[in-house]
Amino acid sequence: MRTPLRPLARILQARAEGLNPDVIETENLRSRHEAWRERNRVRAERRLMFLSLGFVIAFLAIGGRMGLTAATEPVEPRASAPGNEIIALRSEITDRNGRILATNMTTYALYAHPKVMVDPKGVATKLGAIFPDLDAAALERRFTDGRSFVWIRKVLSPEQMQAVYEIGDPGLLFGPREMRIYPNGSLAAHVLGGASFGAEGVNSAEIIGVAGIEKALDGRLRDPAQADTPLTLSLDLSLQATVEEVLGAGMTMLNAKGAAAILMDVRTGEILALASLPTFDPNDRPAPIVDKTADPGDSPLFNRAVQGVYELGSTFKIFAVAQALDLGLVRPDTLVNADAPMTWGKYKIKEFENKNYGPLLSVTEVIAQSSNVGTAHIALMIGALRQQAFLKSLGFFEPTQVELVEAPGARPLIPKRWPEIVTITTSYGHGMSASPMHLAAAYAAIANGGVMLKPTLLKRDGATSGIRVMSEATAAEAVLMLRRVVTDGTASLGDVPGYEVAGKTGTADKPNPSGGYYADKVINTFASIFPASNPQYVLVVMLDEPLDTAGSEPRRTAGWTAVPVAGEIIRRIAPMMGLRPRLEAAIEGAIPVSGPVLGPVSDN
Known about the structure:
By secondary structure, this protein is α+β, with helices and mostly antiparallel strands. It has 2 domains: 93-232, Alpha-Beta Complex (Penicillin-binding protein 2a (Domain 2)); 238-285 and 308-586, Beta-lactamase (3-Layer(aba) Sandwich). The protein is 35% helix and 19% strand. It contains 17 helices and 20 strands. It has helices at 8-16, 22-71, 120-130, 136-144, 158-165, 189-192, 212-216, 218-222, 237-253, 317-327, 363-369, 372-382, 384-393, 420-427, 436-447, 472-488, 562-576, and strands at 93-94, 100-112, 150-156, 172-181, 194-200, 205-211, 231-232, 258-265, 271-277, 310-311, 335-337, 342-344, 347-349, 360-362, 433-434, 451-452, 467-468, 502-511, 517-530, 537-544. A hairpin with a 5-residue loop joins β18 and β19 (517-530).
């Protein structure tokens, strides 16, 4: 209860004592005011304390945030939007020397907001003039049918963008994005494959691989953590350009339908060049063939080096001989039956043009003369089970593991049954089909001292381990036999002075889809190793339906077609790879050739 300002008891007492009672009221009023001031002072101090504490906390929070921001890596601000974020970053692709094969370029897309257009009809007409592939009437219908958004072009050139700017309609808008470009055009097109747009927005677009290594390693190329780290391939851009140039000229001169070439480092498994013709420009990738009855090889998108599965003919003969040597069944000078024709049940095994190299040939001469009958007898010594096991170890029963999305689909065609007649025909490359990549990897195993390496399109650093498929001595003897094929046998047009080319030709009749084989269509292959005294590289050249019309009679065999093309490639690229020419006498056991070589001794 409040204390009265004029308490009656004190007033009466003051009057009795002759004092002024108003003094009592004044004192009580002063005491009451002092109590009020004290309470207000305490309240004000409490408020000031809380306000100061709030300022201190706010200052510490702002200072801490500023320090945290200063300590973190700077990043570009990104606009927030509903849904998943579009990752537009993609790593560059370079060759083994750091030269750009695939990169990104900033460009713009064109879209429209028809509801804010001033003159939809006029805009459609002007856009039709800028982009001849656009239908102006259809574009006008899209602008006037009530839509609020219309995509017009996903990519614009600077000239096209300027022309659209000059239309001046507020309904036309541009969205920034990156696009994939290949500065070397069609060079290494089948390795790179190509890229396209995935998820798209008005301010960015996702770049995804659609073929080749772009698709096979799409996850690596799109990984934001590795966006600034280029993907380094094993290809050498200079070697790739030379291989494609010579192969293209040879394909044209020999009237071939298509061609392929693979250059591989036998000690690392790295592919230094891979070409398939006809080719395409990944900057303007053509549409695939949709006709299921058409030959896939008719499309320039078809990679003959990896996807093409062919009977590779006499290039297989060295595998039968190498296995027999490794098993101790024969030696290079062992004489085998080569009397042609050879009768096996109801079948007859003949030589090219019905020749007869018999009655006996040494194993070395079987390879040099490319004798079907001699190889057949060697294969029978080996037997079906051991033959299959050896071919499996060389990779001929599974797709190659090279880093291309097309590789897993290129499964070799293996006979369902393996009677003795299949053992015979397989030994000289008929009845079983594989890709040029399979062949290159198998020949690289021979050149690498009998060690099989996985072929790769990625640059390798350091030593590479593999699987031994034959002894080092067997591999060395096989290389010497292949050298004899070039010096004295079917591949004499591939002899490049000073570079000791060794190799084997293969001419295989082309299967007819309706059954049997074409009488006038062949697949020609030359698998080569160089230099023979110190094997370092394998080159496989394949021509589809070649025909040499330079002579008095048309010639379709590998000795006249694939071999000279491979020889010219080696002559051009060997100096580029730092190989110095050397005297033939450096090859132990080599037989020198006297006089000019005018043509192959045999043609199969």
